[in-house]
Amino acid sequence: MNRKDSGIPGLDKVLGGGFPSETVVLVSGEAGSGKTLIGLNFILSGAIKGEKCCYLSLGEDLDELLRACDGIKPLKDIRGYLGKNLAIEHVVMGEDLGLDSFTKIFESYPLIDRLVIDNVNRLLIFAENQRDYRMRLSELVRYLKKRVKCTLLLCETNKGEIDTKNGEAFECDGVLHSSFMEFEEKPRRIMEVHKLRYSSFEPKIPHEFVICADGLSVTETLIL
Ligand SMILES: Nc1ncnc2c1ncn2[C@@H]1O[C@H](COP(=O)(O)OP(=O)(O)O)[C@@H](O)[C@H]1O
Ligand SMILES: [Mg+2]
């Protein structure tokens, strides 16, 4: 099966080789659990391979995202692909851009290889109500599967929850969840795969997820 790597070799192993093509995968987790960095790492890995990649940020602007990249050695390379085969777009939702017009963008979106939308919580803010959000989300996922080889939808969640309880995990083909776990009296980041269509993986096993200046890594199962 054709797959897109995450840019983190340990995570690709956990995923059975990466994210399957023609899928939309939810990357959920608490604030600070590493979703944005996972997203940036994913598009950089595609850009290095010459793929067409786009990061749509509904929150942080370009400067803020590049500043985050500067703290992580391998991510510094993102700057070199900007304006070539990698785009980082800061999209401000509000009066001129509602959830309906945002979704419509993707109806006729150019065909690209990788997309990250950071994050769906912003879309929820601009929905008329929960039903409207759920319908638009479902429509968005449908369009994305046609226009983009692999999309990561980032989603901020409360501790112990895998989505905002508005159907994100249900609508997406996969759910990757990062959180914090106390281990030897120290909080550590962990990553769990809750769902991934067309893949064989061990569900809900906590894998250690490390963010440091040398890069992102996912290691073997934590022994609890
Ligand atoms: N160079 C670094 N070394 C260690 N940790 C870092 C570094 N850069 C960022 N981080 C950690 O990553 C976190 C930010 O991750 P981020 O992807 O923005 O989280 P999220 O998008 O889930 O809120 C920071 O709070 C910080 O703890
Ligand atoms: Mg973030």
General description of the model:
The structure is a single chain. With 224 residues, this protein is of the alpha/beta class. It has a domain of 155 residues: P-loop containing nucleotide triphosphate hydrolases (Rossmann fold). Helix content is 30%, strand content 32%. The protein is built from eight helices and eleven strands. The strands form two sheets. Strands 5-4-6-7-3-8-9-10-11 form a nine-stranded mixed β-sheet. A two-stranded antiparallel ribbon has the order 1-2. Strand 8 and strand 9 form a beta hairpin. The radius of gyration is 16 Å and the shape is globular. The mean pLDDT is 96. Magnesium ion binds next to helix 2.
The run of helices and strands is EHEEHEHHEHEHHEHEEEE
What's the count of strands? 11
- CATH architectural label of the domain at 22-176: 3-Layer(aba) Sandwich
Q: What's the end-to-end separation, in Å?
A: 33 Å
Instruction: Work out the radius of gyration.
Output: 16 Å
Residue fraction in strands: 25-35%
Largest beta sheet: what is the strand line-up?
A: 5-4-6-7-3-8-9-10-11
